[in-house]
Design goal:
By secondary structure, the chain is mainly alpha-helical. The protein has three domains: 81 residues; 263 residues, Serine Threonine Protein Phosphatase 5, Tetratricopeptide repeat (Alpha Horseshoe), CATH 1.25.40; 84 residues. It contains 23 helices and no strands. Helix 2 packs across helix 3. The radius of gyration is 23 Å and the shape is globular. The relative contact order is 0.07.
Length: 462
């Protein structure tokens, strides 16, 4: 029996202006971005089969629709493309209407269940999901006054809130030392069990209840950040969204801004500059910036500067950098800062400033700021230190300073070989190999030596 041609999919390809080969290439880009390597060999004949009526399997419909969404700048669903998606989990859709307590339980259960985890880890980073809800949504998410807890619910007090905050801070410090690939499962287990239990407990007042939701939001954000650092972008996006829901329910505007800033950072790293600018602008909106402490305002501001630079708004980016410098100067020991900003000081500001200057085309300024970051970074921040060195080497080699870049990258590998589990660090090594390829072929000794070390490192973390 002959298959019926998928006219809906064919029409979308025409609308996108894509040949079969171009559609396949776009599909593979999305798949690789989300570490779905089993789809890396999709070619034009696969697309032709789908047009002819064959149904793409497993996550392929979602990947193809995400590629079309980015191309057409509107949401393309599997149904619109004439595809069948067998499970809701495979779609990985981020529904803002889902209650955050339900989302926490479902997401944590899927993340921890060995049989179901492949669905979550196979999720696709979705540009469509970056569209933020309306102002009305934020108002609706604000928590109601304390309601009567269910019979038998555990009592939850201020001490429990502080315990959760202490635990989240411990995980955050570990992330800074070892990278997002170390310990995230333990964090998810803690969120899924202890924290989820607290959220349905009996609170003495509304302030404690809100604070517990804010603490849970920080834990969800951290799980997202660790997944982002480890290159698990679809998972990171879902935890960031969950964190935003919990922060909105807590009525914590600065925390919402902090999470939006992280989402903007992820979008920047993945090349979604316009989306990053929208997210970073939202992070600076109203009380998210105005009610934040100086250190957090500086963090929001410097990522906003990066987003402006990435979209070609160099003059505005320069002004934003100056504003971030001013904000950080106002931070001092007498001001109580949220624990989530413990890592952000001169070294972090210099790192983000360097990335901004690099994107503005100022390589000299970028190298100077990367060096400033390396010089002032504390020993407790090994992961970011390695990433900074990777960026510094790339900027140096782009300016033609090959020997200098090799020395920098050698130091970066020294740091990475000390037990760092980070997808971002790994990506710096992959980029290094690409930059050094022409020099290696010319027989430059330092390039050959680095290639051998890089190969060993990548083999050890793959």
């Amino acid at each position: 029996m002959a298959r019926e041609r998928n006219e809906q999919f064919a029409a979308l390809l025409t609308e996108a202006g894509w040949s079969r080969a171009q559609a396949a290439a776009a599909f593979v880009r999305v798949a690789k971005e989300n570490r779905l390597t089993r789809y890396a060999n999709v070619q034009r004949q696969h697309v032709s089969h789908w047009v002819a009526g064959h149904q793409p399997s497993e996550h392929a419909p979602i990947i193809m629709c995400e590629a079309l969404t980015r191309r057409l700048k509107r949401v393309v669903t599997p149904d619109e493309a004439g595809f069948t998606v067998l499970t809701a989990s495979a779609q990985g859709a981020l529904d803002w209407r889902v209650d955050p307590l339900v989302a926490l339980n479902d997401l944590g259960r899927t993340d921890l269940d060995a049989d179901r985890r492949s669905l979550l880890r196979g999720g696709v980073y979705s540009a469509a999901a970056l569209v933020l809800p309306s102002d009305a949504w934020w108002a609706e998410m604000a928590m109601e006054p304390v309601a009567e807890a269910r019979k038998g619910a555990q009592r939850v007090g201020r001490g429990d809130v502080e315990s959760v905050r202490d635990m989240i801070l411990a995980f955050s410090r570990m992330d800074q030392r070892r990278g997002g690939g170390h310990g995230r499962t333990a964090l998810v287990e803690y969120l899924r069990s202890d924290v989820a239990g607290y959220l349905v407990g009996k609170f003495p007042n509304d302030r404690v209840r809100r604070d517990m939701h804010a603490a849970a939001a920080e834990g969800s954000y951290l799980s997202g950040w660790m997944a982002f650092d480890n290159g698990e972008h679809g998972i990171a996006e879902r935890y960031f969204t969950l964190g935003l829901k919990l922060a909105a329910r807590a009525g914590d505007a600065p925390l919402s801004g902090h999470i939006l800033r992280a989402m903007a950072h992820q979008a920047l790293d993945l090349g979604f500059s316009d989306d990053a600018l929208e997210l970073s602008t939202a992070s600076m909106h109203g009380r998210r910036y105005q009610s934040a402490t100086p250190r957090e305002r500086a963090l929001l501001g410097v990522v906003h500067a990066r987003s402006l630079a990435a979209t070609g708004k160099n003059q505005a980016a320069s002004k934003a950098l100056l504003r971030a410098e001013d904000d950080l100067r106002q931070a001092h020991d007498g001001i109580e800062e949220p624990a989530r900003t413990f890592f952000f000081a001169e070294a972090s500001l210099a790192h983000e400033t360097a990335c901004t200057l690099r994107d503005m085309g100022d390589r000299t300024g970028a190298v100077r700021q990367f060096r400033r970051s390396v010089k002032t970074r504390g020993v407790s921040f090994k992961r970011t230190h390695a990433v900074t060195l990777g960026y510094l080497g790339a900027t140096q080699v782009s300016a033609g300073n090959v020997e200098e870049a090799c020395a920098t990258w050698s130091t970066a590998l020294d740091a990475m070989e000390e037990g760092i589990y980070s997808g971002r660090a790994r990506q710096r090594v992959v980029e290094m190999r690409g930059f050094l390829s022409p020099y290696r072929r010319r027989g430059v000794p330092a390039a050959a030596e680095l290639e051998a070390r890089a190969t060993d490192y990548l083999r050890s973390v793959d």
